[in-house]
Amino acid sequence: MCFVISSFSSIIVIELSSKKSINAAFILIIYHFFSAFCLVVFSVLGNGLVLVICYRRRKKMVCSELLCVNLAVVDFLCCVCFYPLSIMSSFHHMWLGENITCVYYGLGCYSFGLCGMFTITAISIIRYLKTCYSLVYGEGTNIQIACCAIWLLAVVWSSFPLIGWGEYVPEPYGLSCTIAWKAYHTSAKDAFYVICSFACFTMVPVLLIVVSQCQILYKVFRFSNSLSARGIRNNLKYAEKRLSVMFFCISLGFVIAWVPYAVVSLLFIFHRESQYMAPEGFVFPALFAKSSHVYNPFIYFYFNKTFRRELRCLLLSFWPKLGGNRVSVHNAMVIQHPIHIQLQERARVPKRTFGLSQDQTLSKNKDKAMHRSGSNPVPGRPVYTCWGSTSKKSLHHLGNMLSTGCFVVQFVPVTGQQ
User: Fold this and answer.
1) Do the beta carbons of residue 341 and residue 409 sit within 8 Å?
2) Across all residues in the chain, what is the average pLDDT?
């Protein structure tokens, strides 16, 4: 509610006497609402849940999942550390803090953006090598080395404007900062940095992502169709297909989000001073690019059953009443007790009595049965413990079900436990 009041108060301050002021008010309100609610709130909430779930199951995580954790860290920190400054600037209709905050915002957003792009590129390449060529590089310390290399390369390249190669300046609509794309016309160093930033650090990773993900999908679906044609059912087939589709959606969403901004930046590099470019042409591609921080957690929760199960456990740990009715009804219906199940081989051929009378044989079998029905299980036989109801009906049903084969089942309830 406070965002709505502040936004409308900002509109009142703006002069609406001309079309230009109306456009400025429209840009501010759209940027503010999208940034405040969609980017900051949803991204922090979604990526925060991903990080909490990954921390809860840190002992069960495989090494390849560290890249997903790295991507969640990038999205979370970028929305927490940098985007609030842009939102505050939208209230004042100008960039706050002058040059120092512009460098801080531009350096941080560009380095985190490169880190996210390199992370998705690494995920795509590792899965491509594993799926198409059976080469496993995503194990052990290789993932940790890849994460460190990603951060190092992103920070080093984004720091070149601090030493004179390029510059961070406010964007045309004045609510965020980025690389000075127009510096292409100022000097050879700036032109080299701008061209390398666009070609080597934008287009090359995007092409690697698109090509590798398309090859992965083609390989997985072709293998799946070959198994189906031969009538082979493979449980790994569905899991691998679902995992491939998940990473394809993450990569495709990132590419779709950033390509419009890259195209606008390319046009801005070569446009002349005499040609006017409307600020709206920069606002919406920038907002669309920043939306890439939002949808990754939703993709995780939709395609990954482990994340959904951990999220349910996390919510139940904070609000136990969410699952209280089902648990109480279950406990009221039946009391669970541990039961030792001992499986003994049943002789298919009856034993010969060797001259014993029928009464002596029955007496001997009765003594063996009484010995076996004692509290101690027969030594040398495997004993299995399960949880079941102690009612006579359930025990009788379980005994009939297990003793239909060549096994005899003995139930030894453990006393003193509930």
Assistant:
1) yes
2) 73
